[in-house]
């Protein structure tokens, strides 16, 4: 799935790069776009979420089957100068992961489907190069907090009843890169970003020796985003 993400982004980059002006005296689109102190936009995109597990003992790994999810959100940008912007990108992220726990012979016991809807609140620093005709590469990174609406945190049931529980509030850092393309009417930006959880998200079962959660030291989100931004 990650390969498909990179291929999709590559196709989009090539398509828009072919329209950008690379000659010595290009026709500059949106010449004043980066001169405004405040900027607004929105983004659409795809994601693939995973988990990183740490274990107490070597009793077998939890297998994660990943699937493609969807992102949508808004952008608020405070521009410090030509090269540095502070961005707030609140949005919704829909994703699903299927976990396979070791040591079970029954599929009903071994498999847990984790469907999550995150409300994300990333605060990011965008560092750009000088504008090159009608395109401008950049790096972006920062911290984010998310509200997991499908966490089951308040459920009294646990895995013995078929309910997998996670913490509702999560924290992560994000890092990525992309290219701003200045078209005649708007700025279009494809980007790739990694999301790396900072906190343990697992809620243990009521039984401390649970076959599902007893051997897990920590469970942290890992994710890959491909976003398409319109400003």
From TrEMBL:
Coiled coil: none annotated. Keywords: Signal. Pfam families: OMP_b-brl_2. InterPro entries: Beta-barrel_OMP_2, OMP/PagP_B-barrel. Residues 1-20 form the signal peptide. It comes from the Bacteria. Residues 25-201 form the Outer membrane protein beta-barrel domain. This is Porin family protein. It comes from Sediminicola luteus.
């Amino acid at each position: 799935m990650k390969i498909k993400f990179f291929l999709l982004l590559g196709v989009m980059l090539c398509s828009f790069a072919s329209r950008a002006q690379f000659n010595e005296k290009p026709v500059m689109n949106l010449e004043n776009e980066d001169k405004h102190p405040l900027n607004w936009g929105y983004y659409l995109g795809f994601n693939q979420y995973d988990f990183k597990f740490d274990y107490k003992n070597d009793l077998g790994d939890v297998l994660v089957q990943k699937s493609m999810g969807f992102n949508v959100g808004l952008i608020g940008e405070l521009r410090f100068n030509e090269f540095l912007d502070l961005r707030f990108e609140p949005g919704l992220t829909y994703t699903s992961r299927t976990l396979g726990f070791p040591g079970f012979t029954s599929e009903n016991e071994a498999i847990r489907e984790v469907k999550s809807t995150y409300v994300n609140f990333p605060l990011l620093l965008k560092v750009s190069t000088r504008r090159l005709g009608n395109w401008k590469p950049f790096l972006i990174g920062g911290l984010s907090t998310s509200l997991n609406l499908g966490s089951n945190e308040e459920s009294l049931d646990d895995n013995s009843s078929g309910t997998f529980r996670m913490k509702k509030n999560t924290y992560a850092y994000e890092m990525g890169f992309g290219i701003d393309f200045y078209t005649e009417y708007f700025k279009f930006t494809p980007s790739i970003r990694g999301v790396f959880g900072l906190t343990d998200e697992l809620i243990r079962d009521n039984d401390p020796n649970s076959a599902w959660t007893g051997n897990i030291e920590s469970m942290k989100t890992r994710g890959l985003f491909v976003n398409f931004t319109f400003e």
